Amino acid sequence: MKKYHGAFIKNEREISCLREADRMVANILDAVGDMLKPGIKTRQINELALDMCSDYKVKPAFLGYCGYPYAICTSVNEEVVHGFPSERVIEEGDIVSVDMGVEYEGFVGDAARTFPAGTVSAEALKLMQVTEDSLYVGIEQAVAGNDVFAIGAAVQKFVEENGFNVVRRFVGHGVGSRMHEKPEVPNFKTGVRGLTLQNGMVIAIEPMVTAGTYDVDILKDGWTAVTKDRKWAAHFEHSVAITPQGPRILSISDRGLNKHTIKA
User: Fold this and answer.
1) pLDDT at residue 2, as a whole number
2) Spacing of C-alpha 130 from chain mean position
3) pLDDT value at position 264?
4) Distance between CA 16 and CA 198 in Å, rounded?
5) Distance separating alpha carbons of residues 220 and 168, to the nearest angstrom
6) Sign (positive or negative) of CA dihedral 131, 67, 223, 75
7) Domain residue spans of the chain
8) Residue 124 — φ and ψ, nearest 5°?
9) Contact 44/190 with Cβ under 8 angstroms?
10) pLDDT, tens digit, 9 for 90 and up, residues 131-145
11) For residue 155, which of 201, 214, 109 has the smallest C-alpha distance?
12) Is 72 helix (H, G, I), strand (E, B) or coil?
């Protein structure tokens, strides 16, 4: 890997390793979507992730990262990110954001989706759809020569035009041999010029969108972020390579790109 103003430029072999790591993550998220329904406990999602990592012979990237005690993040309703799997039972109408990463051949795959549990409200459905759509709006800006902050400006504009807000406390990031590399990838307009995107960069774009305020609280566990007004939030994430042909989404499962799959 070569450095460019602190960000790492990957070669084809390194991007291939990242693609394989992300394929595994996407397959795990597919399996989570298959099992997620009212009545299951969020710890069962963690158990599924651990079992699939064992089958793949890879390490869960989140487990032990900065002391995080689980393989996966399960954030329900007003929980934005970093929610702990637990004995909590998922109820009809809940929405569950699931964030997952694996380490493969020294490289990290990272992706997230928000899933409905049974039939959800019209507002929750719109929240998920707008969040997912905003991810692809951001990805469209992930081209060489563009300013990295153009991604966040595009995401924020789309989200706010649809009546929601973007969390400011957390941002996307570069990803490679470490889970968090430069550059930071905000989901909002910062008002300053950022790093110019270059071919070979790999970034994780991950809008976190709320139905109310974008301000968050951190719970006593030191990890779980919840909206300050306790209105619901959604989270979608892809790892994306910057290439001469345009943005290349790496976190695609064996089933293909899982886009616009939310059903009423």
Assistant:
1) 79
2) 14
3) 31
4) 17
5) 20
6) positive
7) 2-249
8) -65, -40
9) no
10) 999 999 999 999 999
11) 214
12) strand
Across the chain, where does the E strand assignment appear? 2-4, 7-9, 59-60, 72-76, 79-81, 95-104, 107-116, 165-166, 172-174, 181-185, 202-205, 208-210, 216-218, 225-227, 233-235, 238-243, 246-249
Alpha carbon 142 to its chain centroid, in Å, reads 16
Please count the CA atoms within 13 angstroms of the CA of 264 that sit on its side-chain side.
3
CA distance 83 to 72: 9
Phi-psi region of 151 (alpha: psi -120 to 50; beta: other; left: phi over 0): alpha
Q: What is the pLDDT of residues 233-258, one digit of tens each?
A: 999 999 999 999 999 999 999 999 87
User: Nearest Cα to 203, choosing from 137, 129, 127, 108?
Assistant: 108
| Distance (Å, whole) CA 132 – CA 209 | 9
CA 154 remoteness from chain centre? 17
Q: Specify whether the CB–CB gap between 7 and 144 falls below 8 A.
A: no
Q: What is the pLDDT of residue 262?
A: 42
Residues 6+ apart with CB under 8 A from 51: none
pLDDT for the residue numbered 85: 98
Residue linked to tokens 């990592």: 53
CA atoms within 13 Å, Cβ hemisphere of 157: 12
pTM, rounded to two decimals? 0.95
Mean pLDDT of the chain: 95
Architecture of the structural domain at 2-249 = Alpha-Beta Complex (3.90)
In angstroms, the CA 250 to CA 264 distance is: 27
Indicate the burial class of 103 (C-beta count within 10 angstroms; 0-12, 13-18, 19 or more): buried
Residue 186 has pLDDT above 60, yes or no: yes
Q: Residue 259: what pLDDT?
A: 66
